[in-house]
Amino acid sequence: MDSDWNLKGCRRDDPSRFRTPEDVVERIHEVGFLSLFATEIPGFSVEEHTYAWDWWCDDPARDPWAWRMEIAKRDDIAYGKFFDKKAGFISLSWFPVFANYRRDGYDYEGMYDDGKLNGRAKKILDALELDENAVGLELMSGELRRRAALEKGFDNVLISLQMQSFLLISGFRQKQNKKGIAYGWHLPSFMTPETKWGYDTVNSISETTEASRSRMAEQIRKYYPDAGEK
Predict the structure, then answer these.
(1) Beta strand pairing status for 33-35 and 77-83?
(2) Nearest residue to 32 (alpha-carbon basis) of 220, 196, 230, 229
(3) CATH class of the domain at 98-206
(4) For the segment 192-213, what is each residue's pLDDT rounded down to a tens digit?
């Protein structure tokens, strides 16, 4: 663990501690939402329910940083930078509500036409070769950057698209050398929620954006009553 990063972990013997990725998955499905790192909502994170010295250790069975890679691949959970530009998880059952609110009733082309999505963001989405249902490719970050022909601001635009629910992190992979041998860091792959789940599933909510926001706020406060309005 990086000693310069003071994680808000719990005691090893804390009964609420997440001991396995399955514990994290269970909580995601229970609440619908869960941040990876601590937020302004007390307790609303994996960080606060894990032992701090298990992070970035050499044992993937104990390391929550490794767990996130396993959970991101699941077909019932979305992973991405959804919460105040921080990484977190959303269950499939709640993601359409989240998308309805964050997209404010737009698809990405309509948002671009109305000036609510900049040209860099559209280049990234276009690079995924989306069809009329926003279904397209899954690309590693380096390939996505290359196809979008973006260098300046690329990472910030990726985060904005995740915050707007148009993009998610679908998994992590290593690069391969000419012999097909994996090497280096595990890098994120990206796809649209529609690519993961289909257009009809992601766009299944027929309510106002404010109604979706209220439902999510009510759900969060049910489990975290100290959550403020922001």
Answers:
(1) unpaired
(2) 220
(3) mainly alpha
(4) 999 999 999 999 999 999 999 9
3-class secondary structure, 12: coil
Phi, psi of 166 (to 5 degrees): -90, -10
Q: Collect all residues with Cβ–Cβ distance below 8 Å to 75 and sequence separation of at least 6.
A: 92, 196, 197
Contact 34, 88 (CB under 8 A): yes
Q: Residues spanned by CATH 1.10.10 within the chain?
A: 98-206
Question: Cα 186 to chain center, whole Å?
Answer: 16
* Contact criterion met (CB below 8 Å) for 26 and 207: no
Please give the angle made by the CA atoms of 69, 72 and 19, to the nearest 5 degrees: 60
Cα angle 79-80-86, degrees, rounded to a multiple of 5: 125
Which pLDDT tens digit goes with each residue over 101-146?
Answer: 999 989 999 999 999 999 999 999 999 999 999 999 999 999 999 9
Cβ atoms of residues 90 and 35 within 8 Å = no
**Can you list the alpha helix ranges (DSSP code H) found in 15-94?**
21-31, 64-72
Q: pTM for the full model? A: 0.94
User: Could you give the CA distance from residue 150 to residue 148 in angstroms, rounded to a whole number?
Assistant: 5
Q: Read off φ and ψ for residue 221, nearest 5 degrees.
A: -65, -25
What does the alpha-carbon distance between residue 110 and residue 91 come to, in Å, rounded to a whole number? 26
What angle (nearest 5°) sits at the alpha carbon of residue 111, between those of residues 109 and 116? Answer: 140
